[in-house]
Amino acid sequence: MKVPSFHLSTEEIREELAPLRHPFSIAVCRAKNPFNIGAIIRTAHSFLVREVFLVGTEPWYERAAMGMAKYETIVECPDEEVFLEAVRGRPLVGVERDHAKTTLWEAEMPDGLVFLFGSENDGLSDRLLSACDQILAIPMYGINHSYPVAIAAGMVMCEWARRKDPRGSLTPR
């Protein structure tokens, strides 16, 4: 079943959502699989992130966002330098298993942070790794080397919400 439009324009919906947005952002180096970027945008909408930074110029699959891109602030950064300038002064948290100093369960998550995800094949560049305030890994238990980037982004956003959601526990009593 399709969700009704509530008889509001896209801009009116964006205005209604603005005060509900959370004080963190997602950044992703354009993935080799354009579906992943759309899936990340869709998931970011579910967590009402402040904005989504897309680093690089590769295309992304808008249909995978399921229409949620129109409600999000998407900041297109053609390269790493433009991205780093856009987030200057904000805590930058890289998600990169091989260079991690902490895990998702232990990492600090200050307000205003930007979670940064690399592309599937290349991960994060040395330049982006050196710009990160911290680098975290998501614990893994199988023999895979990494999670799909869209899944990793969802897990990180979910952990942020678990720690920071002002509504507290939603577990039925």
TrEMBL record:
GO terms for molecular function: RNA binding; RNA methyltransferase activity. The keyword Methyltransferase applies. Signal peptide: none annotated. InterPro entries: Alpha/beta_knot_MTases, rRNA_Methyltransferase, SpoU_MeTrfase, tRNA_m1G_MTases_N. GO terms for biological process: methylation; RNA processing. It holds the Pfam family SpoU_methylase. Residues 24-157 form the tRNA/rRNA methyltransferase SpoU type domain. SUPFAM superfamilies: alpha/beta knot. The keyword Magnesium does not apply. Keywords: Methyltransferase, Transferase. PANTHER family: RRNA METHYLTRANSFERASE 3 (PTHR43191), RRNA METHYLTRANSFERASE 3, MITOCHONDRIAL (PTHR43191:SF2). This is TrmH family RNA methyltransferase. It comes from Polyangium spumosum. The lineage of its organism: Bacteria, Pseudomonadati, Myxococcota, Polyangia, Polyangiales.
